[in-house]
C-alpha cells in the first residue's frame, strides 16, 4: 500500500559538446572515487554496431548503501546490486541510461532513466535529464525507513552527478583534452567525408561561459544569452525548466523540490485549459503545503477556478477603484526593503475601516485588496529582474498609530477576516515579513480575533513593536534602508500613501443599497444595550474557570457620563430577583438594567476591585481587556457618574447639589459587547507578541505578577 515516489529533474545544461561530456562520463567506470558507495561494476553484456555509431553496454553495479547495520542484518545483505544499461548513439549524439535494482526486486522496485542529448539551440552544448520512480511493496515492516534511506541516497547522488562530470572534465583538461571529434561514418572515399560533414573550427572559447556560470549568471550574461530577461537563461525548450533558470529566477531548491515543481507544472500543462500560472506562483503553492504535491495541486486548482470566476487576471487592467478608496484607503507601495522585496505601507490606525465598509460594502474592499496583491506579484517579478536574484514575496509595514474602537467594529473585523481568508487561499507565501509598528494596548484584542485565521507559516513572519520601539535596536533600520523610512515615522522620505481620515457620513450607503449587493453585514449586531440610572448601575456577570483567561469589553456611551468598574468575587452573586425586575426588564424600551452585587456585600470583604475605575463621557467608545488572575466571578459594572464631592472641587455645596439634581433626572445609555478569550488562544497570540520585544510584555506580566494588575482600557474620542 506504499506510495510510489517519483522524481523528475530539471534540464541541466553543460556548456560543452556532447562528445567531451561522454569522455568525462566514461571515466566513472568501473569505480569512481567521488561515489564511495559505488564499490564495483562488471560488464554483463556489450554490443557495438558495425559502423561504431551504436554502443550498448550493460553493467552490474555493486553498491554499499549507507543504511543502519541492523537493517542490513534483518535484510540479510551487505550490498545492493543494480543493473545499468547504457545505450550510446554517436550518430544522433544521445546517451540513454536505464537502471533498476536486482536485489530485493520482488519487494522494492526502483527504475531510473537518464539522458544526455544535444542542446536544441546550441549544438556545442549538452543537456542532461533524469527521472526515477521508487515503489516499496514490502520490507519486513521497515517500508518507511527504507523509503527515507532510498530518497536520501538518491537526492545526494543527484547533487553529485554534476560535480562528477565537472571533475572529469577538469581532469581531461589537465591532460590536454579539450576537444573530442564527432563520430563520422566510416567511408571508402576520403573526399566525400570532407564535403558531407564540414567541420567548424573549434576554439577553446567554448569554455568561457562555464566559468561565468559558476559565480552565478551576471546580469550582462543573461542579456547576452537570451533576447529578453524573462526568458529562461539557457534557452531550453519552452516546456522544460532548466537548472540555471531555476537557480536564477526561483531560488535554491532541493532536488525533490525541483522535481515537485516540474511534475506539477507538467500536470498543469497537460490538463489545464487556459492560463497556466507562472513558475514562481506554482512554487508558492508547493511551499504553502511543504511540497506535498497532491495537497498543493488541490489548493492551486481551487485558486485557478476562483481566478477564472472573478476575472482576477484582468483586475489590474480593467478595474478602477472608486474615488472613496483612492482618497481614504491609507495604503500604498513604497520602494523596497533591504532584501529587495517590494514594500507595502498601510497606515491602518489612520484608516476609517468602519467608514470604508459603510461607504463601499465588503465586495469593493475585497476587490481593492486583490488588486494590491496582483500588483505585488507584478512587483516581485520586476524586482527579480532588477536585483538579479529571486524575490517572491513582499514586506508589509502596518502603522497602528491611531488604532481605536472603530477598528474593532464587528462587521469591519468580519470583512477583514474574509479578506485575510481569500488572500491566504490565493496568494500563499507572498508575505515575506510583516512589521507592525506603534501597536497600542488594544492591539492584543484585535490580534486575538484575527490570528486564528492566519496560517502558522505566515504568523512566524510577524514582528510587533509597541510605542516607539521601532526606532530602537532591532527596529525598522534592520529591515528598511534609512533613506526610505517614511516621513510619518520620523524618516526623510516623502511617502505618497494617502493620509486616511474619516469617511464623511454623507458617503455612507444605506443598508438597502448594500443589501442589493447581497452584503447583510450590518443587519446583525452583537452589541447589547443597557440603561444606567442614578443608584441603579447595570452589571454583567462573567464566570471564569481557568485563571489567566482574558476578559475583553467594548462599549459606546450613547448618553450621559458613566463610571466603568470590574470586580472579582469568589462566590456567586444571587441571581437578580424576578419580582423586582420581572420579565419587563428585557423588553422594556429602556434596555436592560441588572444589579448583581448584593446590597449587604462589602467591598474588600465580599468582592474586590481589580481595575481602577474609568470615567467615560457621553459619546466615547471604550474597549479594553483584563487578564484574570483568579478563577471565580467577575462583574463588569456601568455606574451613573455623580458629581465629585466638594472636597475635591471649588464648587460651593449648593451648586454641587443643583448640578447633581439636574443630571439625576436623566438616565445613561450604553451599548456593550463582552467576550472571554481562553488563555490558550491568548497565549498563542501572546507568544508572537512576546517574541517581538514589544511593550505588550505588561499584558503577559499581568498574568504572572500578583503585585499589580494592568488594565488596558482605551478610549477613542
From TrEMBL:
One of its GO terms (biological process) is innate immune response. It holds the Pfam family PRELI. It comes from the Eukaryota. Keywords: Cytoplasm, Golgi apparatus, Immunity, Innate immunity, Phosphoprotein, Signal transduction inhibitor. Residues 523-676 form the GOLD domain. It is found in: Cytoplasm; Golgi apparatus. One of its GO terms (cellular component) is Golgi apparatus. Residues 221-233 have a biased composition (Polar residues). Its main location: cytoplasm. Residues 190-239 are annotated as: Disordered. SMART domains: CRAL_TRIO_N, SEC14. SUPFAM superfamilies: CRAL/TRIO domain, CRAL/TRIO N-terminal domain, Supernatant protein factor (SPF), C-terminal domain. Interacts with RIGI (via tandem CARD domain); the interaction is direct. Interacts (via GOLD domain) with SLC18A3; the interaction is direct. Interacts with SLC5A7 (via GOLD domain); the interaction is direct. PANTHER family: SEC14 RELATED PROTEIN, SEC14-LIKE PROTEIN 1. May play a role in innate immunity by inhibiting the antiviral RIG-I signaling pathway. In this pathway, functions as a negative regulator of RIGI, the cytoplasmic sensor of viral nucleic acids. Prevents the interaction of RIGI with MAVS/IPS1, an important step in signal propagation. May also regulate the SLC18A3 and SLC5A7 cholinergic transporters. This is SEC14-like protein 1. It comes from Toxostoma redivivum. The lineage of its organism: Eukaryota, Metazoa, Chordata, Craniata, Vertebrata.
